[in-house]
Design brief:
The complex is a heterodimer. By secondary structure, chain A is of the alpha/beta class. Chain A has one domain: 3-Layer(aba) Sandwich (Rossmann fold), CATH 3.40.50.970. Chain A has a 6-stranded parallel β-sheet with strand order 2-1-3-4-6-5, sandwiched between helices. Chain B is α/β, with parallel strands linked by helices. Chain B has a single domain, classed as Thiamin diphosphate (ThDP)-binding fold, Pyr/PP domains (Rossmann fold, 3-Layer(aba) Sandwich), CATH 3.40.50. Chain B has a 6-stranded parallel β-sheet, with helices on both faces. In chain B, strands 5-6 form a two-stranded antiparallel ribbon. In chain B, strand 1, helix 2 and strand 2 form a beta-alpha-beta unit. The radius of gyration of chain B is 16 Å and the shape is globular. Chains A and B meet through strand 2, helix 3 and helix 5 of A and helix 3, helix 5 and helix 8 of B.
Chain lengths: 168, 192
């Protein structure tokens, strides 16, 4: 089972069936599997803060949800996290393709990519960075458990080392 | 048309249907129109009211109503495109349009300088749209939308310029969310 398949399995294990995303070429390895699986409803948002809003709405009606985005788009989602999810205590696992690290070719991806984790820390939100397939099942399962127990968003950062990244 | 009177009308017509309200006076008006557990008041996240409603409409088969505002929706017009893309049959978006940002000093919004939100909705593939200016037409449009099973519906309600006419509703985001959610799922128990 590769990393993308492991994410899909973990989402199912946690009955997380509503997936909202803004397209990204690396995350596509996961969202394409989700799109092909009738267990899930995959919803395309136009912008990351909108994705958070849709996810909160679905959670409010009893659905577990997760959001997929790129690190640049995470910057678009900050106020939705700060003024909606956190005060309302909404558990939303956020899978973030973390650009700006090893092998990055695009200077414009570096500042926001490097700011994601400090911003999550400033917001007081837990986060985990996945560098390889080792222990993924345990890490993902633990992250989902913590997210729902804590009833707050949680960042799961996916690195180039994990998924191969976008090559210029 | 005054927003509070129109909100009272929506509250009466909605029955048990979930209602999501935009931050500020729109949420206060909904609270004073008659609090119920299925009112989802928002307190921040300007622009996301109808996005939240879209998520709800995909999470339940019940009719879902969004009480949005022109300035807020203009922040997030992409969500109108998402509603057009997903075509939730059970979603009605009502936009209170006073052509102003009422809470920040009454500056003219883009709907006051020519942007037509009904045309925006139509161009996003939402076929059931209205723009209404009086309470009678508003009641007819909302009644038709809520009785329909072929949404989404998008109603632009032109309202008088007004700030908050009702006192501020209690700000309790967590209580709002879980009070609302507990009407859809088994309430959490100690140890859950």
């Amino acid at each position: 089972m590769n990393w993308a398949e492991q994410i899909v399995k973990t989402l199912k294990d946690w009955d997380t069936s509503m997936i909202v995303y803004v397209p990204d070429i690396s995350i596509h390895q996961v969202t394409s599997l989700i799109d092909a699986d009738p267990f899930f409803r995959l919803v395309s948002a136009t912008r990351e803060e909108e994705a958070i809003g849709i996810a909160v709405g679905a959670y409010a009606t009893g659905k577990n949800t997760a959001v997929f985005m790129q690190s640049s788009g995470f910057g678009n989602s900050i106020n939705a996290l700060a003024s909606l999810c956190i005060p309302a205590r909404t558990p939303v696992p956020i899978f973030i393709n973390l650009r700006g690290g090893l092998g990055e070719f695009n200077i414009a991806q570096v500042p926001m990519g490097r700011a994601v984790i400090p911003i999550l820390d400033q917001l007081g939100l837990p986060h985990y960075t996945l560098e390889d397939d080792d222990n993924m099942e345990r890490s993902l399962d633990g992250a989902m458990k913590l997210c729902y127990a804590n009833r707050q968003p949680l960042g799961i950062c996916l690195t180039t080392a994990l998924h191969g990244g976008k090559v210029a | 048309m005054r927003r509070f009177e129109a909100t009272q009308l929506v509250s009466r017509l909605a029955g048990e249907s979930p209602i999501v309200s935009n931050l500020g006076p729109t949420s206060s008006d909904l609270w004073h129109s008659g609090h119920r557990d299925r009112n989802f008041y928002t307190y921040g996240n300007m622009g996301l009211c109808s996005s939240i409603a879209l998520g709800m409409a995909m999470g339940t088969d019940e009719q879902v109503i969004s009480l949005d505002g022109d300035g807020s929706l203009l922040m997030n017009l992409g969500t109108v495109a998402s509603i057009g893309r997903e075509q939730p049959k059970n979603l009605t978006v009502i936009v209170w349009d006073n052509e102003k940002w009422g809470q920040t000093g009454g500056q003219t919004s883009h709907t006051g300088t020519g942007t037509d939100l009904e045309k925006v909705a139509q161009s996003c593939g939402i076929s059931h749209t209205n723009t209404v200016t009086d309470l009678e037409d508003f009641e007819a449009a909302v009644s038709e939308a809520l009785a329909s099973s072929d949404g989404p519906h998008f109603i632009v309600a032109k309202i008088e310029e007004s700030g908050g006419t009702t006192s501020v509703a209690p700000v309790e985001p967590e209580l709002t969310l879980y009070r609302f959610r507990d009407t859809f799922v088994e309430p959490r128990k100690p140890g859950d």
